[in-house]
Design goal:
There is one protein chain. The protein is mostly helical. It has one domain. Helix content is 55%, strand content 0%. The chain has 10 helices and no strands. Helix 3 packs across helix 5 and helix 8 runs antiparallel to helix 9. The longest helix has 22 residues.
Length: 235
């Protein structure tokens, strides 16, 4: 039985949770295989819902609701273990995770998005792109935290939506080292390139590399992003 965790006090605890989700959730995205169940045999899909997703059994639905209720009050590794649990459940948890992805608490929304991205189920792309707070590809336009926007961009790129790459390139200019590092890791995993960007380098050196990334994106978006395989890293 889980120990009750007290609600975080003030913005510092929420920021710490969000940082933990970003830092440890990336490892989940990198290592997770697709956990989605594709069969819809019998009545598992449910007859009283128009949901496009595989519906959980009554017992699993209760477990999903319980974990969703606990999610705002978990921290650090416990939060990451919850994300992993949702990934392992897969499709029956999508409906609840998509609800949590629009939660007004940025760390809760980021955890749900990290779990959805960790499934590697590309059917989720249009649902993530249509989240009510997501105002489009322009970074900083959503009114939500930069870290949450980054988590969404990372999840979408991981699921194959390269239209979200500009958000990751924007993250390379962030003042926070961990945001720059996570942005680069997501870009490198998707494109197999770094273009010489070092998140620990001096600002001028970083800016030169960001300009290379912006030039790369302009070229790739002009020629049709998914038409070919990205080249290996050229330093």
């Amino acid at each position: 039985m889980f120990e009750r965790v007290h609600a975080p006090r003030g913005p510092l605890a929420s920021s710490r949770n969000l940082t933990a989700v970003l830092a440890l959730g990336l490892a989940l995205l990198l290592g997770a295989g697709c956990k989605t169940t594709n069969s819809r045999s019998g009545s598992a899909f449910g007859t009283a819902t128009s949901s496009p997703w595989l519906q959980p059994s009554a017992l699993l639905a209760q477990q999903i609701d319980d974990e969703a209720t606990r999610l705002p009050w978990t921290h650090d590794l416990e939060r990451v273990e919850q994300i992993r649990w949702f990934v392992s459940v897969g499709e029956p948890a999508y409906e609840k995770l998509l609800e949590l992805a629009v939660d007004p608490r940025d760390d809760v929304a980021a955890a749900a998005i990290a779990a959805l991205g960790g499934t590697n189920d590309r059917r989720l792309v249009p649902y993530l792109r249509e989240l009510s707070w997501n105002k489009g590809p322009q970074p900083g336009s959503s009114g939500r935290s930069r870290e949450l926007e980054l988590e969404l961009a990372r999840a979408l790129v991981t699921l194959g939506d390269w239209n979200s790459i500009p958000g990751l390139i924007h993250g390379l200019r962030d003042e926070k080292l961990y945001v720059r590092t996570l942005s680069l890791q997501a870009l490198q995993r998707s494109t197999r390139q770094t273009l010489g960007f070092d998140p620990r380098a001096e600002r001028d050196s970083r800016e030169e590399a960001v300009l290379r990334w912006e030039g790369w994106w302009k070229t790739r978006s002009g020629e049709g992003l998914l038409a070919g395989t990205p080249a290996r890293d050229a330093r």
